[in-house]
């Protein structure tokens, strides 16, 4: 976006976050299921959730970066690559930690429900 003097580099595209979120969510559930069909469903569901999480997290990160632009003159520590990386780390952790807890809770609840149904 040249008119806003904003460039989104490839390293900030979110692919690393997507991979991390996908691996985190899928490994939370894969060990709980035995069948190939169940494992494939876990992988597909994990990919969908990770993609949605990536879009929301990256949108939040971009919105925060754009909203902080006017304050960079008064607060020079907000400007620069280091501040951008720190901001990204906090935003990504803010989304990853509840996602991990939610995945654990979901798989625990869903797996216990499946065990009751199969018994």
Task: Explain what the structure shows.
This protein has helices spanning 15-30, 36-68, 81-118. The protein has 119 residues and is mostly helical.
List keywords for this structure.
119 residues; mainly alpha; elongated; 3 helices
Question: What is the radius of gyration computed over CA atoms, rounded to a whole number of angstroms?
Answer: 19 Å
Q: What coarse outline follows from CA principal-axis ratios? A: elongated
Average of per-residue pLDDT values:
81
List the secondary-structure elements in sequence, H or E. Answer: HHH
Strand content: under 5%
The secondary structure category is mainly alpha
Spans of at least 5 consecutive residues with low confidence:
115-119
Q: Number of DSSP helices?
A: 3
Q: How would you sum up the major sheet?
A: none
User: How many individual β-strands?
Assistant: 0
CA-to-CA gap between the ends? Answer: 57 Å
Helicity level? over 70%
Summarize the structure.
The protein has helices spanning about 15-30, 35-70, 80-119.
Topology, please?
Elements: H1 15-30, H2 36-68, H3 81-118
Helix pairs in contact: 1-2, 1-3, 2-3
């Amino acid at each position: 976006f040249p008119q806003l003097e904003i460039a989104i580099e490839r390293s900030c595209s979110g692919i690393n976050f997507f991979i991390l979120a996908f691996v985190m969510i899928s490994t939370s559930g894969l060990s709980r299921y035995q069948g190939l069909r169940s494992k494939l469903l876990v992988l597909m569901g994990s990919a969908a959730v990770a993609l949605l999480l990536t879009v929301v997290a990256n949108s939040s990160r971009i919105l925060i970066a754009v909203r902080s632009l006017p304050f960079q003159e008064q607060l020079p520590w907000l400007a620069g690559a280091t501040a951008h990386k720190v901001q990204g780390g906090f935003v990504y952790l803010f989304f990853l930690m509840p996602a991990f807890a939610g995945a654990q809770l979901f798989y625990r609840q869903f797996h216990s429900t499946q065990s009751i149904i199969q018994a």
